[in-house]
Amino acid sequence: MQDAGNLGDILRYSLISVIDNGQGLRPKKLLETLQKLESSRDQTRHIGLANTHKQLKLTYGEPYGIILRSKFGWGTSVHLTIPKD
To answer: Sorted alphabetically, which InterPro entries does this protein's record hold (predicted)?
Structure first.
């Protein structure tokens, strides 16, 4: 899901965030993880994020799902977006 462009877009969904201050992901690992989130290929290992992202999209539609952000040395955040209604 892309960042909302204006306040009107932001108010249309609820955001559930899990943030840690651990090591974070190296850029290559973050890119691989983001690609797996958007992949239509079924995975047999490390399926938690990808499965949750896919189920949110199937249940609520394309604009919803997981936003993953990470900066190596700073930590990682996982944001789930779901409709407000």
So the answer is: HATPase_C_sf
- CATH number at 43 reads 3.30.565.10
* Residue 22 domain-assigned (yes or no): yes
Note the pTM of the prediction, 2 decimals: 0.75
Q: Point out which residues pair with 19 in neighbouring strands.
A: 77
pLDDT at 71 exceeding the cut of 90: yes
Residue 74 near residue 19 (C-beta atoms within 8 A): no
73 vs 62: CA distance, rounded Å: 32
What is the DSSP-derived secondary structure letter of residue 44?
S
| 1 occurs within a structural domain | no
